[in-house]
């Protein structure tokens, strides 16, 4: 059955050889000789009368073809009679005439045949009425669903769908989004052309602000930006002119654990977090802006655990920071997710040049990070762990994808389904495997609920988390 068809069951002839329509049959959509095809939009618009009219047109008004339209009650209501069924209509009569049978035998057998039909008519008519009503309801529901799908497909057909990435080209966000975008369009109804644009700025806040207030609210523009940036309004950042609870979250392309890494041990042989905490020489980390986790995570190590670190700002993304490390401008980078490390740094990891020293998962660790210290094991009190949750649990939404507030709900639902279907596409998984990129998606509903839950955090904990992640004021 194609997406543009709605098929409904019809009742069969009322005679002994062919049973009447059963109620349980009417609860499904049928194909084949016992089906009729309705135009879904017309069915949805004109309702039950349209279904009945089309059914009569398709199957005729003879009682043996459409019992509901031909069986009528007699005046005394003791049994139904038919204004249409006649001797002439009886198939057996016509057959006998062709054989030249006796007229009296013809008449008697025809009368017997009609009596049998009328005897069965009372119960079969009631079943036929129930069958038609139920079937019509099923048809209208399916027609409505198909109509919505067609409306989304009609909107996206021939259009361009833009995904803005809040970081520069070549980094983890950019690489992951481009792999996804390559296959996304074929799973969106109407198969729009998907284009990725880089819009770096303020730790991806530029994209967040643009998506919230400027981008068209019609489902043609989406944004990928850091979950930490999405929560900046919670921490009182006035430049974050949005409310993350009002975005239409399509989902997150990946669920991951963040980490911090150092290039060649920062020249001090640092391999673990305890080594970093003992370092006498200041260890520098590169970052895009104070709102990015590339800044917040090393500052947490400094303010909560006393690490001797300093953050240098102004880079466009993790790729720029990586180049800066290799040039000796900075010692390390945070905000390192397993997916991006595997794709961009695997050769350096194997060569021993790039070492993950700490990972921030509370309930699990990443085997690929080797002996990197689980940060939560160094937190001594429950209060410290609760503060850490505010900072690090949201980074599990490693690649959140948002549509502007006010995007039509049917398009949001279609995009959410398309995202999940895309991330199961064998072609995408093959492309991702070549670049050693993993996908572990989070649904749009779960992503939305996570941001709502973050906003339910007590103000005292939010205040402490902000204090632990903000740079010193000069």
Structural overview:
The chain is an alpha/beta fold and 474 residues long. It folds into 2 domains: 6-156, no CATH class; 158-474, 3-Layer(aba) Sandwich (D-Maltodextrin-Binding Protein, domain 2). Helix content is 45%, strand content 14%. It has 18 helices and 16 strands. The strands form 5 sheets. A 6-stranded mixed β-sheet has the order 6-5-7-15-8-16, with helices on both faces. The chain has a 4-stranded mixed β-sheet with strand order 12-9-13-14. A two-stranded antiparallel sheet has the order 1-2. Helix 1 (40-46) crosses helix 5, helix 6 (172-184) packs antiparallel against helix 16 and helix 14 (382-392) crosses helix 18 (459-469). The radius of gyration is 34 Å and the shape is globular. The model is unreliable at 1-52 and 58-90 (pLDDT under 50).
Descriptive terms for the model:
six-stranded mixed beta sheet; D-Maltodextrin-Binding Protein, domain 2; 474 residues; 16 strands; 2 domains; four-stranded mixed beta sheet; alpha/beta; single chain
Summed up, what is this model?
The protein is α/β, with parallel strands linked by helices and 474 residues long. The protein is 45% helix and 14% strand.
Q: Helix count?
A: 18
Rounded to the nearest angstrom, the distance between the terminal CA atoms is: 68 Å
The major beta sheet can be summarized as: 6 strands, mixed
Mean pLDDT: 78
The H-level CATH homologous superfamily of the largest domain, spelled out, is: Bordetella uptake gene, domain 1
Helix content: 40-55%
CATH topology of the largest domain: D-Maltodextrin-Binding Protein, domain 2
Strand content: 5-15%
- Work out the number of β strands: 16
The CATH class of the largest domain, by name, is Alpha Beta
Ranges where pLDDT stays below 50 over 5 or more residues in a row are 1-52, 58-90
Helix and strand composition category: alpha/beta
CATH architecture of the largest domain: 3-Layer(aba) Sandwich
What general outline do the C-alpha atoms trace?
globular
